[in-house]
Amino acid sequence: MPIKAGYRYSLNGTGKGLYVEPQNGYNIYGVTSEIVDGYNKDLTFHGIVLAAGMGYLFDIGTVPLDLNMHYETIVAHGGSDNYISLGLTYHILFGKKDEY
Fold first, then answer.
1. 8 Å CB contact between 71 and 83
2. 57 phi and psi, to 5 degrees?
3. 12 or 93, greater pLDDT
């Protein structure tokens, strides 16, 4: 259960197109397992979270989509757990952004 803060920077400044998204935070509770002496052992951990993402925001008709890749590492107890994810995300908009 990580708590992270970060920001999304659109490379062309329009809010659409290619973006990067650095994040950092702290994992307050995590669970992993490993095999010790032939037995599965569950471990809990907490530690610093470092993450980076990149993606491309675009519209298909009126449907806003986000094609993205995300890397995250949790540094805990002298080791780390690493995650990579790929996603295609549909954004639900609750209001229209004011345009100047």
1. yes
2. -95, 130
3. 12
C-alpha torsion sign, points 22, 25, 29, 34? positive
Contact at 8 Å (CB) between 69 and 27? no
DSSP 94: S
> Which H helix or E strand runs over 14?
none
**Do 68 and 57 form a contact (C-beta atoms < 8 A)?**
no
Would you state the structure tokens that stand for residue 66, as one six-digit string? 């986000």
* 84-88 own/partner pairs: CB under 8 Å, 24+ apart: 87/55
pTM: 0.71
5: which 2 tokens?
């803060």
Return the closest-CA partner of residue 88 out of 68, 60, 73: 68
